Structure formats: structure tokens, C-alpha cells
Amino acid sequence: MSYGRKNFRTGLFVCLVIAASGFAAISEEKKDGTLALYPLCQEVTQMEFQADYREKKVFVTFDVGSTPVADKRMKVQCGIHTGSAFREEYSVKMNFSNGKATGSFPLPNPGKYYFVGLLELDGNRFFDIWKNFEVYENPGSDVSKKAFRKENIEFEYSVDPDELTVTVRLDLTKTGVVSELLTGVGAVVLDGAKMPESASKMSFRRGQGHGTFHLPKPCKPGKYNILVRLEVKDGRSLLLKEDLVVPTTEWLGNRIGLEDVVLPPWTPMKRSGSTISCWGREYTFGKDGLPVSIRSAGKELLSRPVQVILSKNGKPVSWTGESVEVEKCTDTHAVVVGKAAAGGKKFKVRTTLEYDGFLYVELEPERAGALPFDSFTMEIPVQAERALYRHLFSVWILNLPGAVKPGNGVVETSEWKPFAWLGDNYRGLFWCNESDEMWPNRKGNAIEFVRNENEVVLRANIVKTGQKIKENWNHCFMLQATPVKSYNPRQARTMRIYGQGKTLEWVWPTPYNQLATTGLGFPAAVNPAEFAKHVNSFLEKKILVTPYTAPTFITDGLPETIFFKKYWWFGFEDPYCKRTGWKYNWYCAAPGGKGYADFLVWNVKKFTEQYKLSGYYYDQLHPYAYGGKSANVGYEENGIRYSTYPIRAQRQLYKRLYAVVKSQPWKTWQWGHMSAKMNIPVLSWLDGYFDGEHPFSALVRDKSYMEVMTLDTFRAEFIGRQWGLAPFFLPEMRGKIASDIEPTRELMAVGMVHDVPVCRLFCNGYEMDRIRRELDLFDYGNSDFYAYYDEIPPASTDMKDIYVSAYKHDNGSVLIVAANLSREKLDRTGKIRIDFNRLGVRPDKLMTWPDRKPVAHVNGEFELAVPKMNYRMFVLGTPPEVTLPEVPSFSESWMAMDVADRKLKCIEKLNEGKSLRIQGLGKYIAFMSEKVLDAQSGWQVVLSFKARGKGTGQAGIFINKDYSYGMIGNDWRTFKVTEKDQSFRFVFELKEPAMKSIRKVLAAFKDSDIVLSDYTVEIGKDIVRREPAKEPPASKPAAKKAVRPFDPWCIADMNLRKESSRYIFKTEKDVTIKGAGKSFLFFDPTAIPVKKGQKIQISFKAKGKGRAAAGYISYVDGWQGAKVVTRKLEANEFERLFGFVFEVEDEKAAIARSVFEIFPESELTVSDFRLVVREAE
């Protein structure tokens, strides 16, 4: 892995050597000359891949080094990866010989890819290595002497802080110089020093240069230069220089966040006999030191004591508790030690408790020697009524939480997993284990859920008869009863990141606007002054500011992250970062790595206090596994180094971060992203969690949530009450289903009857704004929630799939929500019966909400109809008096149409959204509203607004065939502005028969600067009176001929046109264009008149693979003077809407024709193509 990198383009022959960590040698000689053996592990594995453009192949070497593991036990697949699977045609499966596997596969099309090596051990996935890989269109075209220059060389280096050495790797293939003609030396020197005579020699092979140089001694913090001098035998030479900073370490060993105090909202721990109590929970220990009672949220969780079950040669061995002692109990922690005997051998059970209810249990024999058992099982029995749901951690498969499976006996079995949970809607018990080292039965029925008459048992089958037990065997595990703390659901309901009523800002970093953080997520501002201004703009509006961070990942571009990467590297880096425009990747960081937590906490404290931040939004909260010795994780067994999960180290890191934020004197908020892997020991140190991505991101692309999710899954993970965390649901809908109204209404109905706020993201945001406004009109933030799943619900119904929950306001009125969550998408009609006693209210008037129409009821019973994918709301009593702020003219999101223009500051909301400023920064720029509006053919749209400024603008509409981006027409009006406000009103007649919706659009001509206000839109029939249309004369209807939209299009190359059927596939809706051996043009011969200064707007939908370009060909006359003007695009398997705006710059241009350019081996399916020419300013 590269720790410092200078990026230059590579050339004709690319050879990259990737070490999984970069520090350990792949093999090493003993004093007798033989090779030392290293355990099989990711830390020392090297993956080398070379792109040979002459042979059009990629050659791969995967080297695990000198390992005692037999070659036949290992297999590896290397190649191009989509992110979810290998592309089989561009990958190779390889066997090993002496620890090395080699192979090749065809060179893919030009483009950027993930290159992955996946190692299997005994047929099971063991580890993988990910890197970026780019294939160029015309590499190595310049192999003359001019190519031997710095910009054609990729310079990488890594640091070993123990050996104080720097290893340099050079990619020289773009220079055109073969390795045999090169010599070179290198050294690390103080900043500004020259190359010493004692410089070390470099080696060269296959276009690569390698060298290892020592840092000057004594090695003090400061700036150094890595110098490399290259010489070619013909006399040419080149001096390369890279800077290296040895960082200061004033942060190392700091005690920030380690203060021995109880943080809010927890309470001090207390002891009564062998019972230790903390906030909301009590743990009582038996004589063996294991829990005999665990109470949470006022209820007992265990059906009987935690039990150890032993046997030897098939015969039971008694486990007997002898004594228990509370060694210590302070406000913040306690230690309980129990002693037990089994088969004549003494055991000790030591439990350390922390004030958030976390237990770490160490069970081990008091003395070494033979164990009295060959089978060891531990059972954690939970009362059946407390064990409604279960969680079971999974890495590689989607294992949704949900109801414990029905039946008796063993109802679910799994191999070893790091954590599991059993619980109900309000409480539960979390179990976790960091390592399977002491689990000989790790691949068997290691974990079982067992249902008996009055209990559900979490059974851990750790050792089975016949399995080998380690000499130093012990069993360590963790427990934590939930909920871990109190949370305020009223506050959670008003936490909003997007849309009306915004109260929370997460300052999301992007590669184009790195305002928030240095690299992706590191707590340091790129531009302190701008960042302070940005943060203060929210704080002044009482909006909490929580920048995006990911504490278990760190950017690869800081002096510390380069120098200490040996200790901090946790198995992989995320190549996605550089592929999306970041200067550096980020790598997974070891939470227990030497000094890592100290460094991060130190910087978080500075960042928080400098800008008075409200807290942080954390990503990547679930635990990662790794086996690297330098990272203080993993274990070795039979010549193999296996991975472990550093749950306690990760937990300690987040505890320190929580302490930093919660020690501030202002209002704070800590939250993070956690999906399908509820890591409670870490989540304990957050206020809220953002959930929903990983379980459903691949499932709701074309289906609604109730088609892919059960309510027991939703209750098991998303309601938050059983965790003690404020829940926030992250929708994952895309395309049409995200813009349609019904799926969003259904999802909001799910959220409302579970009291789970839904984020205004990846859904129909304006429908969500409307529903939120209905809730805010009741002031539901100041209400207590009554759930349909309570033992006594607030109302009952006989209607199938109708769920009724309620919000009781402080003034005594009640908002009742009835949700139709039918998976069959059926309307429901029936009765609801309100339980006045449960709600603590008297019978009162009932009305629909928010339209306040009276509803007749008899003792709380009334009839209603609930449409499919929908809900009904009613208010019992007198609702609170609420005045909501006016919705500003530009409340919705407006954005530049062209993605490239979104990097520009060309659009800005003013006066809290009441005004909008648009600018044509050096060119014509078009903008569109995110909001989709219902409309029909035959209706009218009237746009009214005021505008001032300078230059010329346009206002108009996009006409859509759906509620997404299926544009089938557009209409624009041009207007000029002056320094004074002018009123404009434009009427648009809708005539497209297939239309369903419109989207508002604006545009600013080149160098225009326009401020719009009082913007309104009216949609409906006869808004503006129209003259009656005259009856046309009767005529015989013409015969209709089916015309496919791409019928006139053809290939420009006459030779290829003869074989069009090989490359072009037309249907009634779209066209598929397949690349040939070279690029070719596919164009529409229909001529469109144009002239200089006009704008040509092109829009279309496309999906496929590879690269293409879209645009137009301009001509002077007929077919003379052709000039091709295009913009490139990359397609993938998901259909996307593309839009480009061109300005005609050729003075002689008279006509234009639409065109696509298809690159070799690419494939593109295009539909809904539109080309519109607008008048010049």
C-alpha cells in the first residue's frame, strides 16, 4: 500500500505491487540460509498486477510468502470487481505453487475499476485486497526521449517507524525506458540537503523501481526529502524529490476522555450484596460469578441463571459455584469475582462492569493443566415474553433481524459470530465475543437459538467432543442489557437534516468542496475561516452542526497517517475515495493501534472547541475484523493468522469521543450510521442512530418497503426504544419509486405508527414535507407515544393490516394514526375502537386531521376507509393552537442541471428561501427544481414571480411521463431583468397525452445575475380563460404508422454501416449501441437549423457499461464543414438521466445533427432522447 503518493499517469505497461500492509517482509532468510516461515496472513501478502497493452492482457501474481500452509489448501481469484461480484470475463482463478499464484485475463476496456484479490482457504473466504486500477485509451504513445520526465512517473513510498526506513516504489513504464537500461540511487535527507554519496542503490524490473532507504539519525520531527536519481545508459538523468514529514507526538499518551467520571445521562453504580445496579438495570451474580438475574426497564430478562454445561467422554461434569465477591464498586465501574469447581479443577470468573451496563466476563482455570471436559456449552436463557426478536451479526450475507423463529427446540443455528441479541420492544440482552480463537467448534453449530416452553435460549456451543482444545484455553465474552440509557423521543421527532423545519446539519464533505474536513472525514478544516463562517451560519439559526466523520477510517494524506500506518493500518483502504475525486484514499484504522485513539481524540477535541461544534455524525460504526499483528489484533494457529473483532478497543475510542463532546457547555448531539449490525457496546456512546441503508438498499429499487420488509424486522431494529437510542430511518428508494407519492406515504405511515422519524432523503421529499407539516400542526413533538404493539394498545381494529398508534399531546388531545400496511396493496374498510382508559382521556369530539371534519363515534368506535399504501389521521379532543411558519417560495431544492455545473457557486437561496439567486458564470446555466408536481394534458401551468439583476433569464417546465425524470417535453419563456424588481407571469398549455407531472426549471444566460422572489405556480384547468377552439374541417383520418424513435439514426462509418445489425439494436422505446473494435459515431441525419450563440440542450436516459459521448455535429451547409461537439459519459447497470447544454460557437454553423460516440467494447442503451434549440440572448 502506498502511504505517500505522487500521482502521475502510467503508460504502455503498468505494473503495480500491492502489499497488504507494506511493512513486513514477504520472506526472510535465517542465519543458516533457509527461509523463515511466516503465518498465512493478509499483513504480509503481496498482489502484483501488470497491464500489457501490446498483448492486451493483465498479468497477476498473488504471493502469500513463505508460509507453512500447504498450497493445495489455498485458491485465489483476482480481477475486476463491480463492488458486489467479480466480472468473470475479466478475472482469473489461480492455484498456488510454493506460496505464489500467477495468471492472466483479457485487458478490459479503458476506464477506472476496482482490482480485487480474494483468497480462499479450505474453500472458505479468508481475506481480500482491494485497489484502484485504470486502463487508458492510448498509453505509451510517446516513447521518445521526451517521455523520460517526472510527470510520467508514479512515485510511492511507505515508512517503517520501527526500522526508521522508507521504501520507494516507482512506476516508470510511461517513460518508455526498459528496466535493463536504468540505474538509480536514493536517500532520505534533511529538507534542502543534496543527495549523499552514500545513497543506496535501487533495483529495476518490469518497469518498476524499488529501493529502501534509512532516515537520518537521530530522526527528529520535521521535514525531510526523499531523493531518487535515475540514469539511462545513453546519458539521460532525472532527479525525483518527494517530501516526507516526521510528525511531532505531543498527542501520544494523552488522557483526554479517560476521566473517571459518570457522563450524562447515566447515574453512578450502586451495590447491594451481589447485585450491581446502574442506570435502568440490575445484574445479580451467583456463586460462580455468572449472572443469575438481569433486570432491565423494570422487567426480569433471564428465565433462570446463566448456565455452564460440561461433559467428558459423553458423561456430564458438574459445574458448581463456590463463592462470589464484589472486589470493587465505584461510581464508574465494578469488579465481581466468582469461583467454581468442575471435575476437581478450580475456575475463576471475573466480571468487570461499567456504568453504561457493559460487562466483560473472563472465565478461565486457576491453574494450567488438563481440563476436566471435552465439551463446553454456555446457555443464556431469556424469558419467552422478553425474547420476541433476535439479532445475529453477519458480514457476507444479509441476515435481517426479526422475530425468533417459531417451533420448539433448536430453531436457528449458526457458525461463530461476534454478537447476537434477544429482546422485546422495550428491552433485551446483547451478547458479544471478539474472537473465535478459543472456540474449536467455530465452524459447527457454534451459536443456537433454542425455544422451550417459557424461554428462548442463546446457546454457545464452544467445544464439542473430539475437538482440540488449546492449552491456554479460556472463555471471554461480553454482555450488555438494553436499553443502555434514556433518550428523549420528543427531541428526536424534531431532528431534521433536510426539508422544512431543519434543525440538524451534518456538513457532508465532498471531493469538490472539501470545506468540512481534511480528506474524507478527518476533524480539521481545509479553510478555517470559511468553515467557521459556514458553521456559524447554522448555529445562529439554532441548527445543530455535526460534521461527517468515520473514526475507524482515516485519510491517507496526513504526516501522522503516513508515518504510523504500520500500527494503524487495519487490512484495507477504500479505493472509492480517489475514484470519486478525493486526493487521497482513506484506510480502515485500528482502534487499538498504537497511539491511534490518542491522535484522533486529540484532534476531535481541538476541532470541537475551535468551532463550537454540536457533535459529530459517525459513519462505519460496525466492527471490522483483521488479523494484523502490528494492529494489536488477530491470533495465530497452525501457521495461519486469523482475524478478530476489536470491539472493546472500538468501544473505548467512542467512549472517549463521547466524553469530549459531552463535556462542552453548549447543546450537543452525537449520532451515527448503523445498518443491520447493531453494535451496542459502541452505540451506547451515541444519542441516535441512522439506520436503513444496508438492509434495503438493493431491495427497494423497484418495490415499496412493505413488499420487502416485515414489521417484526422493523420493530427488532428500527424503533430505538429497546436500545435507548433515538432512531432515524434512512430511505433507499431510487428512480420512479422514489418520486412516486404512494411509496413515500407508505413509508411515512410505517414511521408514524412506530414513532420513528424518516429522513427526507431518497424519497418524495415534498410529500414528506406535507406529512411532516400535518404532524407539526398538531405539535406532535410535545406528545407521548402509544404504540399498537403495546400490551394494551391505544385502539383496536378487526381490519387486516391496519395498525393504529397514537400521540397524546400535553393539552390532553390525541392524534390517532391508522396505517394500511397491506403487502397485497389492498384498500381496507372497517371499524376502529379507541381505548379511552389506555390513553387516560374521556370521550370527546373526534375529527379528521388536518382538515378538521367531524367524525361520529359511539363510545370511541367509528367506521373508516384506509386506502392502500396510505394512512388516516384523526384528532380526539381539542387540538393545540399551532401557527406554522410560512413555506418560502423556494423551499424545495434547486440545482444546476449539468452535474459539472453543480461544483460552481451558481445558485444560492436568499432570505431564508424567500428569494433565489441564479448566475450564468461565464456560460448559459440551467437549473431545475427537485419537486415534481402532478399535472395532466389539457391543464395549464402559470408561473408568476418577481426578478431583478442583470442580463437574461428563462423560466419554464419539464413535462414528464412519470414522477421521476421521464421527460417527454419542455417549454421555456425568456425574460430580461433590470436593477429594479419586475413582475413576470407566463402561461403554459399542457398538451402531451402521456404526461403525469411537471418539474419547474430556470436558466441564466452567460454572465447574467438574477434574483427571483414571490415565485408561485398554479396548475389546473382554465386558470387563464382561453378562446374556444374552432372545429377543424372533417377529413378522413390518416393511417397511423408505427415509428420507432431511433429509426432514422445510423452509423456514420460506411464500412461499419454495412454490418449495423452487429452493433445497433432498435426497439419501439430505445436503442442499444455496442462498441466495435474502434470508436464510431451513431447519429440522426435529421437536420436542425442552428446559429452561433444558440443553446443546444440534450437529455436522455442511458444504462450499460463502458464509456461514450453525446452531443451534436454542426455543419456549414448540408454535409459540409462537419464539427463534432460532445461530452463524455460513463454508464453502468443502473439507468440514469443525462443532460448537457452546449452553446453554438461556430460562426458558420447552419445546421446540427444529434450524435453519440461509442468507444471500443462499450455498450449503451438509450431512451427518451430529446434535443432542444433555444434562441440566443
Total domain count: 5
What general outline do the C-alpha atoms trace?
A: globular
Distance between the termini: 53 Å
Please state the CA-atom Rg, rounded to the nearest Å: 34 Å
Q: Roughly what fraction of the amino acids lie in strands?
A: 35-45%
Relative helix content: 10-25%
Q: Largest sheet, if any?
A: 10 strands, antiparallel
Question: How would you name the oligomeric state of the polypeptide chains in this document?
Answer: single chain
Low-confidence sequence ranges: 1-35, 1027-1032, 1035-1043
Query: Can you count the helices?
Result: 17
Mean of all residue-level pLDDT scores: 90
Secondary structure tally: strands: 79
Structural class: mainly beta
Structure description:
The protein has 1177 residues and is mainly β. The chain has five domains: 4-246, no CATH class; 270-482, Beta-galactosidase, Chain A, domain 5 (Distorted Sandwich), CATH 2.70.98.10; 487-678, no CATH class; 894-1020, Galactose-binding domain-like (Jelly Rolls, Sandwich); 1050-1174, Sandwich (Jelly Rolls). The protein is built from 17 helices and 79 strands. The strands form 16 sheets. Strands 70, 71, 72, 73, 74, 75, 76, 77, 78 and 79 form a ten-stranded antiparallel sheet that branches. β27 (319-329) and β28 (333-342) form a beta hairpin. α6 (596-611) runs parallel beside α7 (647-662) and α13 (741-754) runs parallel beside α14 (765-777). It starts with a strand and ends with a strand. Residues 1-35, 1027-1032 and 1035-1043 have low confidence and may be disordered.
